[in-house]
Records
---
Amino acid sequence: MLSLGAFVLGGYIALSYAPPYLTSLVMGSIPTNEDTLRWEAPDEFSREIDEHIKNCEAARLLRANPDWTESRPHLKVPEEIRHHNLTAGTLAGPDKIVVPPYYFIENGGKSMVCIFYVGSNLSGHPGIIHGGFLATMLDEGLARCAFAAMPNKVGVTAQLNISYRKPTMAGQFLVLIAKTTKVEGRKGWAEGWIEPLEGLDLQGEERIKSRLVEANALFIEPKHAKVSKNAGSVLQ
């Protein structure tokens, strides 16, 4: 009985004093994929950006394919702590990541497509998107893809290799495409790249030449990932 009482008391304290994000995770109140798609833009410019992404040909084709799942995972981070999250809060907003990116993940984590818009406040040199931001988006994008194929849907980045091909200009729509290349036990490998949304119309070698930055990565599940498997719902 003493051990049971200690367990109950520990659980109460953990939930009472945990950050809102952790509490939401434990209590199961994280928004669903469908909930995240109901986001409403706060101003006219954001609405135009949002409508352009939502109705572009790539998004419409993926949305119509039952093998793909659409969501906006940044909106699964509770508002109370979103400002502490790098891509969902710090880098989001006017002239940055103007609207929450749209993610489309193929069943089993085979591949992933993310469509987003970048503003001028994400620049390194004036008008040119910072390479560190692009690395962050690739790290996050490849992880979301690989995690969906891994046993417990969660992991950490063990290795990330970036190759910059061309300057990425601010004020444009971008597409991040990722593919899971291999999963072995707790390890998952993925590769991907970022290209202009307009580049999707190109074919063959011209399409490859339109890539702005490429990456490959290795992700590893923590040894006790099975215990915290629910964390994966935020990453999908």
---
Amino acid sequence: MTTRREFLMQAAATSVVAASAPTCLAAADAGIVQTVLGPLDASKLGFTLTHEHVGNSTVKICSDRANCVARVVDKLKEAKDAGIDTVVDLSTFDVGRDIRFREEVSRKSGMNIVACTGQHLFAPESLQARSVDELTEIFIREIEHGIDDTDIKAGVIKVASRADVLSPVEERVFKAAARASKATGVAIETHTNARRRGGDKQIEIFEAEGVSAARVSLGHSDDTDDVNYLLGLAKRGYTLGMDHAFRGMTQGEKVPWKARVEYIKQLIDAGFVGQIFLSNDWVFGDVERDQLNPDGMLFTIRKTIPYLKQIGVSPRDIQAMTVENPKRFFRRLSV
């Protein structure tokens, strides 16, 4: 297990190396990232987990709100002590996003939390009939004005598709995400079915809508052993969310967790370290997921990163994936 002291020592050791990094890994231009506690200078994001869930359907999972808050704050403090500075929470309104809850646990834990607008896998009836323009307006409102009648604003757009072909509703949601991103300068993260090359169809829509590949991260990309698929997406400029290594812990899993981590090294060796995110897709209160991954949000620090180092990935490249890439990606661009 890496302690915060060890992490900070490692970070300090890499600072000299980072000074000579190539242009693609240099510090991002000054910019702002929206967190649940307000705007944050992108340079202060620090070590960032880019695809997590700080409590889906929170009220249903815990016996009472105070208990929920206390338990999540403890988990976030543990992550903070281990060296994690920022968590990007990709829980949309339809999977239990309680924005005041996120504000409270962020304040009490000291963890930066970036909340999202957008939509997850199964659109509720209230959304299915919405037009692209109506969906775009909803996403923009949550970015520009606030979520659920609060002044807490979304800092990223999250959308999802289930398979290799998008349903009509999913297609409208993806078009709306693209248009909201172009209108606001906020980046997009997706849920993909990598086993079925789901990213291919998603990027068709983004490219048709004129969204820069540099503003899109395709989540769960490590659910596949098709490295050519991953290389193809990276070559087109997309960021790959490698956030399901823990799923490789399942007995009989086609893509074991170490193989998933080894694919990250292959991408680095191919020159794409600037287009990789590391995360855990942790969901507070998900018993099945906790049994599979008792390390929870710390899997990246306790298992993924140590194994990356073991197989020859440099501290400089780890710094890029966990600090520099998020800093560049999540800053809001001027439009």
